Amino acid sequence: MTSGSPPSPAEDTDALKRHILVHKEKTKLTASAANNIAIALFGGGFLLPIIGLSFPLSSAPPEGQVTLITMIVWALVAVSLHNWGRTMLDGLR
Hints:
- Helices cover 77% and strands 0% of the residues.
- The chain is mainly α.
- The chain has a domain at 32-93.
- The longest helix is centred in the middle third of the chain and has 46 residues, at 9-54.
- Keywords: Membrane, Transmembrane, Transmembrane helix.
């Protein structure tokens, strides 16, 4: 391609393919990040309190409805983030 001349159809096709590939990789990276955050929230907000309640430690969370509701909220947030990541990937075909 010389300067000033319009791009050839082959160059346009290659640029479009590259653009689509970059978009797909960015989408996969975002979905992966959302899933990783979901895993961390599930582990920290749901699993760790269960472990903490299982052992009589002074740093264990207090037993009660507030702890249970908080654990459920964190689990729901984690599931929502995971599903959001899956929804992003559904758009890739």
